[in-house]
Specification:
By secondary structure, this protein is mostly beta strands. The chain is built from no helices and 27 strands. The strands form two sheets. A 14-stranded mixed beta sheet has the order 1-4-7-3-9-11-13-15-17-19-21-23-27-25, with no helix packed on it. A 13-stranded mixed beta sheet has the order 5-6-2-8-10-12-14-16-18-20-22-26-24, with no helix packed on it. The protein starts with a strand and ends with a strand.
């Protein structure tokens, strides 16, 4: 085991680079950075502090970017609102508490973040991504993993090859694209653009904004609260269009209203009361 402690007057810039294993970062009210590393090569991991920057880097070898085949368990405690940058080969990443900016990249590991206070970029090859809250702009890219976002407050861009995407509450402009996964936004008060090749698309409750959805063989479902005026432009080649909404007339000055553009090839388009 390797242990390190650094005194820090405030949030830090943490950089971690590890191959296999797990990386666990905990952001809390503290004035120190504590690093604990377990695994066969724990003593070979370079841990350094230069001003606000703390680095934890596994050894590199000629034939292996991140060193040996041995997995490492890296646990780091940092002050709240610290910026975090993590790069792994296949190691899973867990970030607890509220951090500032976040840049996380993994080849095949899962990534779970509790709260991002600043801009964030998360990329995985085949791992799942879960972000509880994102207060800044967020970009997520995954080859085949599932993406789950809880609450988003700024611009969000998500792209996956074949994974499903679920967003709990979207309060900033949101764009999601996947090749074959299902896309779900549970609640939104902003512009949303959804695109998929063969998955279903659903916006459970759309309060206002412009909703643009495009699919090939999947169905589209949009829920609208009672009394919200809706302007629609819906086309489908062989699917059905069904609406359970009552007419709400033209929106009054300043009233919430919805613009819905939906296009499918063979999928149904259904409008329901939320």
């Amino acid at each position: 085991m390797s242990e390190h402690t650094f005194e820090t007057p405030g949030p830090v810039e943490l950089f971690v680079e590890v191959g296999k294993g797990t990386v666990h970062v905990r952001a809390t009210e503290t004035a120190t950075v504590e690093v604990q590393i377990q695994g066969r090569d724990a003593e070979q991991v370079r841990v350094e502090q230069h001003g606000r920057r703390v680095t934890v880097v596994a050894p590199r070898q000629r034939n292996n970017l991140f060193g040996s085949d041995a997995g490492l368990q890296v646990d780091v405690t940092v002050p709240e609102d610290s910026d975090v940058a993590i790069r792994t080969g296949s190691a899973d990443v867990v970030v607890e508490g509220r951090v500032g900016d976040g840049r996380l990249r993994s080849g095949s590991g899962d990534v779970r973040i509790e709260s991002l206070g600043g801009p964030g970029v998360v990329e995985t090859g085949s791992g799942d991504v879960r972000v509880g809250a994102a207060l800044g702009d967020l970009r997520v890219k995954s080859g085949s993993g599932t993406v789950e976002l809880g609450r988003t407050s700024a611009t969000v861009a998500v792209s996956t090859g074949s994974g499903d995407v679920v967003i709990g509450s979207a309060d900033g402009p949101t764009a999601v694209k996947t090749g074959s996964g299902d896309l779900v936004v549970r609640e939104t008060r902003t512009d949303v653009t959804l695109s998929t090749g063969s998955g279903d698309l659903a916006v459970a409750t759309a309060h206002r904004g412009r909703i643009t959805v495009k699919g090939a063989s999947g169905d589209v479902l949009v829920g609208v609260p009672a009394g919200v005026p809706v302007w629609t432009d819906i086309t489908t080649v062989s699917g059905e269009i069904r609406s359970a909404l009552a007419g709400a007339g033209r929106p009054a000055e300043g009233q919430d209203h919805l613009e819905l553009r939906a296009k499918t090839v063979s999928g149904d388009v259904v409008l329901v009361r939320a």
